[in-house]
Design goal:
Number of strands: 15
CATH superfamily of the largest domain: Penicillin V Acylase, Chain A
Number of helices: 12
Helix content: 25-40%
Mean pLDDT: 94
Radius of gyration: 18 Å
Distance between the termini: 11 Å
Number of domains: 2
CATH architecture of the largest domain: 4-Layer Sandwich
Largest sheet: 8 strands, mixed
Length: about 350
């Protein structure tokens, strides 16, 4: 776990210094080598401009990452703006299963298996941002990245899933959007912010907070985001669209080619949510679902398979009620290193 403290630029600088070699390696391995610096700058500029308009502090954080790692701001922005490139040609690939549950007492847990290929999964770590004048947040992140999923000190959690299809808009990158949304204090405000933001590509988000509110949003480029209905037993989402607007532009052929297990993972997670509905321990319930092997290797806990290029690289359980974020690196069934951020004590713990 890495802890970064200070204003946006200072935290970015600390990030860049701590992970300089990994950031340089990721730039060399994941950004298209055919593009020279001028071409990269041309691609990055609209994303830089949109980030400055949405949240200049996050642009300052990326500037700090660039300075600390000896990289250019353009390259750091492009690490965060993966939407600027063709998914099929990307070296780093993801794909995940997410759930959100709450009980009659309002105990709310947001959880996800974060799946990736080895190129992306092997570089993951937990970044804890301590902002003396802002909101503290813990995120699962890659070197040079602002964060894939996370939870803040108010108990607001955010997870999300890749969806395929539709055009790409040169807006703020989705990693910027995720961190900007995590500056809110509750899921209702976060969802409202999500709906007010222009999004670069098709994607689903689940948000939850300590009061028991769960929000599901599927965002689309050039269109209003769509709201997902949250069943009483909880909601499960994988890598295919649910809402009508998202279904309309989804490339189902590409989705089934890249994520053939998506439908099974979502159906299985939904079934397990219903079967475990009476479980009084929401954390145990989430762990049971994330570690499920039905359909192995293309199960909720995904193992290596020639049919898909990704497998479970990390799992997160955000106990929004208890203000506790748990990050486990590796397979959900046999996690390796685990990190827990307890926002009530402000003492991170690694095991």
């Amino acid at each position: 776990m890495h802890t970064f403290t200070g204003d946006s630029y200072t935290r970015g600088l600390q990030h860049g210094i701590a992970l300089a070699q990994a950031i340089t390696r990721r730039i060399d391995e994941s950004l298209p080598s055919r593009l020279d610096s001028a071409a990269r700058g041309h691609i990055a500029q609209p994303w830089i401009d949109a980030t400055e308009q949405l949240d200049i502090q996050l642009l300052q954080e990326m500037a700090g990452i660039a300075e600390g790692s000896g990289s250019s701001l353009v390259d750091v922005v492009l690490l965060n703006a993966f939407e600027a490139f063709d998914l099929a040609a990307m070296v780093e690939k993801g794909g995940c299963t997410a759930i959100a549950v709450t009980d009659q007492r309002g105990h709310t847990v947001l959880a996800q298996n974060w799946d990736a290929n080895h190129q992306l999964g092997s570089s993951l770590s937990v970044h804890l941002h301590r902002d003396p004048v802002g909101t503290d947040v813990a995120v699962l992140a890659s070197p040079g990245g602002l964060g894939w999923v996370g939870m803040n000190e108010h108990g607001l959690g955010l997870v999300n899933n890749d969806l395929l299809g539709g055009p790409t808009a040169s807006t703020a990158p989705s990693q910027v959007i995720r961190r900007a949304v995590l500056k809110n204090t509750d899921a209702t405000a976060a969802a409202a912010a999500m709906r007010a933001i222009a999004h670069p590509a098709l994607r689903s988000y689940l948000l939850a907070d300590r009061s028991g509110v769960i929000e599901g949003v599927e965002v689309l480029p050039y269109q209003e985001p769509a709201t997902m209905e949250i069943p009483a037993a909880g909601i499960a989402h994988a890598n295919h669209a649910i809402s009508t607007p998202a279904l309309y532009i989804e490339d189902r052929a590409a989705q089934e080619r890249v994520y053939p297990s998506s439908a099974h993972r979502a159906e299985r997670a939904t079934l397990l949510l219903e079967q475990t509905r009476g479980n009084s321990d929401q954390n145990t319930r989430a762990r049971r679902i994330l570690g499920d092997h039905d359909g192995l290797p293309l199960s909720i806990c995904r193992h290596n398979s020639p049919l898909e290029s990704t497998c479970t690289a990390a799992s997160v359980i955000f106990d929004c009620t208890a203000l506790r974020a748990e990050f486990s690196l590796g397979l959900a069934c046999t996690p390796g290193t685990s990190h827990t951020v307890d926002f009530t004590s402000h003492e991170p713990r690694s095991t």
